[in-house]
């Protein structure tokens, strides 16, 4: 969720009153919670303000883009990056004197504008062209960044939030970075050496303050991902200057992989197929398109499930439904990320759903609707490693499929004992979808 910073440590030139001291003391007893990367959500007041000035903390990383690198790229590449920033997980952009007019008016309104000022003379010139609030003929800017304390004091007095920008190349500059940075809303820090030990020290010093810490990572995708996870808490965010679409894509893939943990996909051997007769089964229509190697894990018990195919493969009598999985009977469990389960009958529009591919990679999508109908049913029983028994009851029809051990669709009516399928087996035991350590027998 979005949170606006309402408190910050007092500036060096300001004396906090007793109420401020009490509030700060209470805040410093709290510990910053681990962050979880995910796509930012447009602010609820987007219709009222031309862009957001809210700062994402705790639930979302702060991901800013350094626009200085755009001057080194072609016009076509720059346009593509600006468009990408408005569509992805980024929530801020750092502007400069040479580009703030053009970019300040053209970048997505969901990006918070941060203007870097180099000198008092530059501040005197640009301060008449910007505003912390919407204004006619003025560029709206939320944050002023600089390496000049007096300049940031003036910016704060003018109503802007402030960012201290520091470079660490020795012990003295390391200590100065957090001692100075804690007096501002943001600290953007770059490091001479590739080690993350200095970053760990800065995180440790700032984690009980309201200062939002961003590491400058330039074009290093791996450094960006690692920085967000240092000391488990990680920095609040990163300031990146990716200059190719491949870098943006790789960063997105790595962040998605961290946000959605892997599931250990295993091979099971079919024991028995039984035709049951009529019963209720549910189709799950989602808000996403499935890839040809992914599906959802569904089973009758908490011991595990079988990887069900989406309708992405050719059928001779009907159009493809690449958003749909003809799942299973209404009593079934759907296995979710973080070792949780949901009953199929509980899923409805807006429910979160975990897809998993043959490599165990997961992603979170959403249910668009569930469709429950009376259909003939088929019981599929299989044995997985460690002799774990898994079963699923699906619609008894040729067009319903599960994945084979070769990641190919297998029509359930053609399965026989000895066939190998993909699935997941685990220790049994669930209470309201949460795994519990208890003695339980499910048959």
UniProtKB/TrEMBL annotation:
Q: PANTHER family annotated for this entry?
A: 3-DEHYDROQUINATE SYNTHASE (PTHR33563:SF1), PTHR33563
Give residue spans, biased composition: Basic and acidic residues.
15-33
Alphabetically ordered keywords of this record: Amino-acid biosynthesis, Aromatic amino acid biosynthesis
Q: Which GO terms describe its biological process?
A: amino acid biosynthetic process; aromatic amino acid family biosynthetic process
Recorded source organism is: Paludibacterium purpuratum
Outline the extent of the 3-dehydroquinate synthase N-terminal domain: 137-251
Instruction: Identify the residues that the record assigns to the 3-dehydroquinate synthase C-terminal domain, covering every copy.
Output: 270-442
Put simply, this protein is called 3-dehydroquinate synthase II
Q: Where is this region: Disordered?
A: 1-53
**Keyword Amino-acid biosynthesis included in the entry's annotation:** yes
- GO MF entries: 3-dehydroquinate synthase activity; oxidoreductase activity
């Amino acid at each position: 969720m979005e949170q606006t910073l309402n408190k910050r440590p007092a500036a060096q030139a300001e004396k906090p009153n007793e109420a401020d001291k009490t509030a700060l003391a209470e805040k410093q007893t709290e510990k910053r919670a681990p962050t979880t990367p995910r796509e930012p959500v447009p602010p609820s007041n987007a219709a009222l303000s031309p862009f957001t000035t809210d700062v994402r903390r705790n639930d979302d990383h702060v991901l800013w883009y350094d626009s200085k690198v755009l001057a080194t790229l072609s016009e076509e590449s720059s346009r593509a990056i600006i468009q990408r920033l408005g569509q992805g997980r980024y929530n801020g952009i750092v502007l400069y004197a040479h580009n703030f007019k053009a970019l300040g008016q053209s970048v997505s309104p969901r990006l918070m504008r941060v203007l870097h000022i180099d000198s008092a003379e530059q501040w005197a010139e640009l301060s008449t062209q910007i505003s912390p609030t919407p204004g006619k003929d003025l560029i709206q800017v939320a944050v002023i960044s600089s390496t000049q304390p007096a300049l940031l004091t003036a910016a704060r007095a003018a109503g802007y939030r402030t960012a201290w920008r520091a470079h660490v190349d020795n012990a003295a500059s390391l200590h100065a970075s957090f001692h100075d940075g804690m007096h501002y809303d943001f600290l953007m820090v770059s490091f001479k050496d590739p080690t993350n030990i200095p970053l760990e020290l800065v995180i440790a010093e700032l984690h009980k303050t309201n200062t939002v810490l961003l590491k400058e990572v330039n074009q290093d995708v791996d450094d960006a991902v690692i920085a967000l996870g240092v000391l488990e808490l990680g920095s609040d965010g990163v300031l990146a200057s990716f200059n190719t679409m491949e870098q943006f894509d790789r960063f997105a893939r790595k962040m998605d992989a961290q946000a959605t943990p892997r599931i250990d996909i295993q091979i099971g051997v079919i024991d028995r197929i039984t035709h049951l007769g009529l019963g209720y089964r549910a189709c799950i229509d989602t808000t996403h398109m499935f890839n040809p190697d992914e599906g959802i894990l569904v089973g009758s018990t908490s011991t595990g499930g079988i990887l069900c195919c989406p309708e992405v493969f050719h059928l001779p009598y009907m159009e493809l439904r690449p958003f749909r999985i003809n799942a299973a009977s209404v009593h079934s469990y759907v296995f979710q990320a973080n070792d949780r389960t949901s009953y199929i009958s509980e899923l409805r529009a807006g429910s979160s759903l975990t897809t998993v591919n043959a490599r165990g990679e997961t992603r979170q999508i959403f249910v668009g609707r569930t469709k429950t109908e009376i259909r003939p049913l088929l019981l599929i029983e299989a044995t997985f490693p460690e002799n774990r028994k898994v079963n699923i009851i699906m619609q008894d029809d040729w067009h319903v499929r599960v994945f084979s051990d070769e990641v190919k669709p297998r029509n359930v009516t053609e399965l026989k004992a000895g066939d190998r399928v993909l699935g997941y087996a685990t220790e049994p035991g669930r209470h309201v979808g949460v795994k519990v350590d208890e003695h339980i027998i499910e048959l």
